[in-house]
């Protein structure tokens, strides 16, 4: 016959084994739960990025904003002083407003990037083109303002330089 001590030992072994199995199952459940929560957070973040992108493109694609961009590209000046004389709010309010709105949109992108809310891949397409065009048209003036220590949009200069570097790496054929 089986002795009482043997039965007691078997019960203890089964109890310890059950506790170990329960612990393993609990840890596995916790890991799976955390993995699902991470996937849900990643999906939510991607959804928010898509919403942000759509919000920005809705603004970027309006007729009014397009007119402001093209009016800005039509401005002509020789240096910062010439620009200030021709396109200040008291001389040419409409063109100044177009340039200001377009420039502030570029700055908004720079702020989102600087805060880590978007990355360079976010700009592919029309926004990348407009950022590069902005720099082609207004970069010399922005550099001059920066060098003079004038208040303004100098915070956009490092951002635009990073965009240009990114674009050079991604599209080297355009920078030969």
What is shown here, in short?
The chain is mostly helical and 176 residues long. 77% of the residues lie in helices and 0% in strands.
Please explain how this structure is put together.
By secondary structure, the protein is mostly helical. The protein is built from six helices and no strands. Helix 2 crosses helix 4 (93-114) and helix 5 (126-148) packs across helix 6 (156-170).
Q: What gyration radius follows from the Cα positions, in whole Å?
A: 30 Å
What number is the mean pLDDT? Answer: 82
Give the number of domains: 2
Structural category is mainly alpha
Amount of beta strand: under 5%
The helix fraction, in percent, is over 70%
Terminal residue distance: 92 Å
Quick one: how many beta strands?
0
SSE ordering: HHHHHH
The gross shape turns out to be rod-shaped
How many DSSP helices? 6
For the biggest sheet, the summary is: none
Unreliable sequence segments: none
Considering the chains and any ligands shown, give keywords for the structure.
mainly alpha, 176 residues, 2 domains, rod-shaped
Which helices and strands appear, and what pairs or packs with what?
Blueprint: H1 4-60, H2 63-73, H3 80-86, H4 93-114, H5 126-148, H6 156-170
Helix pairs in contact: 2-4, 5-6
């Amino acid at each position: 016959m089986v002795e009482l001590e043997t039965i007691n030992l078997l019960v203890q072994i089964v109890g310890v084994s059950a506790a170990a199995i329960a612990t393993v199952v609990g840890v596995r459940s916790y890991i799976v739960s955390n993995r699902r929560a991470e996937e849900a957070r990643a999906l939510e973040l991607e959804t928010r990025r898509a919403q942000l992108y759509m919000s920005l493109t809705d603004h970027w694609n309006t007729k009014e904003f397009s007119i402001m961009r093209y009016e800005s590209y039509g401005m002509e000046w020789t240096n910062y002083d010439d620009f200030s004389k021709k396109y200040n709010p008291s001389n040419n309010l409409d063109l100044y407003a177009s340039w200001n709105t377009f420039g502030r949109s570029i700055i908004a992108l720079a702020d989102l990037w600087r805060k880590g809310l978007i990355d360079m891949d976010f700009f592919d397409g029309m926004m990348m083109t407009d950022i590069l065009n902005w720099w082609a048209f207004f970069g010399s003036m922005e550099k001059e303002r920066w060098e003079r220590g004038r208040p303004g949009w100098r915070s956009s200069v490092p951002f635009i330089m990073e965009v240009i570097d990114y674009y050079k790496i991604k599209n080297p054929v355009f920078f030969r």
